[in-house]
Amino acid sequence: MERGSTKHGPVLDGEMAHEFQDPQAPVEDQPDLGAPREGGAPPGMTYDEVEERSRLGRYIPRSSLPGDREELIVGANTLAAPEDVIEQLAGLPAGERYRTVNEIWAALGHHNEERRT
């Protein structure tokens, strides 16, 4: 038996979400389904920072880690990284090796999430 995808897409998801709203509830109590999500960022980072770090990570192949600046740039070029990503990687200090995208992100002067204790 063949099974289809369970993903619906943003339009149908929005329509389905409206089905679960309480029609008796006052308008101000209804969720704003078009509003940006809150709580999507870990402590110590904004949602935009998480998105930027994720975008950077999409252009760093695992085969380039651990790697230095030059290895990361070569890897990013194999994934057709945009020029701004290549420029960021070119700004890394020479001679340093990075094991993770988090280490690269921090070396570029950004903050990672705070560790929970």
Automatic annotation (TrEMBL):
Residues 1-65 are annotated as: Disordered. InterPro entries: DUF2795 (IPR021527). This is DUF2795 domain-containing protein. It comes from Virgisporangium ochraceum.
